[in-house]
Backbone:
């Protein structure tokens, strides 16, 4: 059966939603508060050591995203204005992200007015407003964690985030634009917490990017304190910006060569997300 | 937390006028009157508002309405970040509604010119005079040094001249107590930066102006908040946003410089699409200032006018 890209996204999210409704009560709101230990079993190589340069495989990126990533230089992170950048809300769960979740309650009704999620890496802190407030003006500032509002759909907390500062899909230069929006689904099964994230980016994606991350309840876990003060790590001319000019990045082909992949596959694109692409690669290889 | 607070305040106090202008709190004593054609920065206090740039002259009534939601006091100072129409256009009429008493006026009030003062770099005045702009639109107070300052509404306001950027008369304004920088046209959060060599503008000046803003801006904990940047147009920003923009302009300049060094013609440079990875953010095909115009302007600046 063929699913259009849009239907695939709907299917993934819908399946997660049905799963929740079948396995837990839809009558009571779930308490998400507490400490959560991260599980790294999904996409571990990318999330630990990090992706290789030139690895865009499985990402629904467009040509603009590829061009931008081709120019990316890891030395960017040595710049003083970059050293203390945290992960943005959509990438945060992929990094070292054991969590502490707390709530603010209305003193009279005892309703949850907002959720506060703090992640381990650089202590990213975000607030999810549950009181129905509108999102800010288009002229308001953007932030790393954006502006988030949530609502319960049965036992699933659906969170919509706008006003995100520019971030990244992968830590190898695949940029996520500030025009992107993030929709998340927090799903708790007993001591397990699953987060489904769906990013739509009209600038750098041709399809929504859907990812899941998981945690296990870890009562008593304490987040480590963190502080960051940038410094000059490398003396450079004023205004120097590390980047590769077109056609000069010497590392772009290493990933495909190391893993025996066709160069085309490493360039990514929506079709490389789906199982059918493997079959196409086999057919191409057979034809050669 | 500070950002969350800003969002709350912004959502609760903005004013949408008939002209689709929005007044948002920025930080400290500073607000922004934002519109599709640009931003006016408004500092308020006991002495009367100080504006950085205005809005087009046609929006005079809407601008005044919006400012009166903050304070009934007449406008005291208007700082022009350049002589461009969208900056200077509304200043003359707006100044007539304001009030600034100079030393001479207090000695001999019979000749008093009670308009708001209009402050700009001297090159703005020089170009207006050369272009036969009516004198009531001229700046009333100019500076010719690299920096100047005004003490307004309880805080030091520093003016920094940026040479050869959008024009040769650009000013970046720093509100020291409020920790807000108003950039003028060197930083347009919605488009590629616009510069006109006929007015003394240039791509290297734009980049230097952006680096100056980065010198002034200090991010808060976790690279969040801290100094707030009011761009010439578009949403409120901070150090990271300006760094992203500076990187973009520098990378595109470097690409075109490399192509020029290889002897490529303007047409060949355009075919190479040196802005392709940023067009989704900053290009506006069919608009007044497109990515293609930006490429062409850089090419001409770097190639000495080669075609």
Residues:
């Amino acid at each position: 059966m063929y699913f259009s890209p849009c239907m695939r996204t709907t299917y993934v999210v819908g399946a997660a939603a049905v799963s929740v409704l079948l396995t837990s009560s839809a009558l009571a709101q779930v308490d998400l508060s507490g400490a959560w230990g991260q599980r790294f079993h999904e996409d571990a190589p990318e999330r630990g050591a990090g992706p290789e340069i030139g690895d865009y495989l499985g990402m629904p990126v467009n040509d603009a995203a590829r061009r931008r990533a081709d120019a990316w230089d890891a030395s960017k992170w040595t710049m003083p204005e970059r050293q203390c950048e945290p992960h943005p809300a959509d990438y945060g769960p992929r990094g070292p992200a054991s969590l502490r979740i707390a709530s603010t309650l209305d003193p009279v009704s005892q309703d949850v007015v907002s959720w506060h999620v703090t992640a381990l890496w650089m202590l990213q802190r975000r607030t999810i407003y549950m009181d129905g407030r509108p999102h800010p003006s288009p002229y308001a500032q953007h932030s790393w964690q954006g502006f988030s509002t949530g609502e319960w759909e049965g036992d699933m907390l659906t969170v919509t985030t706008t006003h995100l500062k520019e971030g990244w899909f992968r830590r190898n230069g695949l940029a996520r634009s500030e025009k992107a929006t993030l929709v998340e689904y927090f799903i708790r099964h007993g001591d397990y917490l699953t987060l489904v994230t769906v990013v739509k980016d009209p600038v750098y994606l041709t399809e929504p990017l859907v990812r899941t991350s998981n945690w296990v309840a870890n009562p008593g876990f304490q987040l480590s304190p963190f502080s960051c003060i940038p410094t000059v790590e490398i003396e450079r001319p004023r205004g120097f910006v590390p980047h590769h000019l077109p056609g000069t990045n010497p590392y772009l082909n290493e990933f495909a060569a190391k893993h025996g992949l066709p160069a085309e596959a490493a360039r990514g694109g929506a079709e490389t997300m789906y199982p059918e692409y493997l079959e196409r690669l086999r057919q191409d290889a057979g034809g050669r | 937390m500070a950002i969350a607070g800003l969002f709350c305040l912004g959502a609760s106090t903005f004013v949408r006028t008939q002209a689709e202008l929005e007044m948002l709190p920025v930080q400290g004593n500073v607000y922004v009157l934002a519109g599709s054609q640009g931003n006016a920065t408004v500092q308020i206090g006991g002495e009367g508002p100080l504006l950085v740039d205005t809005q087009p002259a046609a929006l005079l009534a809407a601008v005044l309405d919006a400012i009166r939601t903050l304070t009934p006091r007449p406008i005291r100072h208007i700082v022009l970040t350049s002589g461009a129409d969208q900056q200077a256009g509304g200043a003359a009429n707006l100044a007539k509604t304001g009030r600034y008493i100079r030393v001479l006026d207090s000695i001999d009030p019979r000749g008093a010119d009670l308009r708001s003062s209009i402050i700009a770099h001297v090159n703005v005045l020089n170009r207006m005079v050369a272009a036969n702009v009516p004198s009531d639109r001229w700046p009333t107070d100019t500076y010719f040094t690299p920096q100047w300052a005004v003490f307004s509404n309880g805080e030091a306001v520093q003016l920094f001249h940026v040479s050869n950027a959008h024009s040769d008369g650009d000013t970046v304004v720093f509100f020291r107590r409020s920790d807000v920088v108003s950039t003028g046209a060197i930083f347009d959060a919605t488009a590629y930066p616009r510069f006109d060599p006929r007015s003394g503008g240039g791509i290297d000046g734009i980049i230097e102006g952006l680096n100056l803003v980065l010198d002034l801006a200090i991010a808060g904990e976790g690279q969040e908040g801290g100094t707030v940047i009011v761009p010439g147009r578009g949403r409120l920003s901070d150090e990271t946003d300006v760094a992203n923009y500076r990187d973009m302009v520098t990378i595109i300049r470097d690409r075109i410089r490399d192509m020029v060094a290889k002897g490529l013609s303007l047409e060949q440079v355009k075919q190479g699409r040196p802005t392709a990875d940023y067009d989704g953010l900053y290009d506006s095909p069919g608009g007044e200032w497109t990515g293609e115009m930006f490429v062409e302007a850089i090419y001409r600046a770097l190639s000495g006018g080669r075609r």
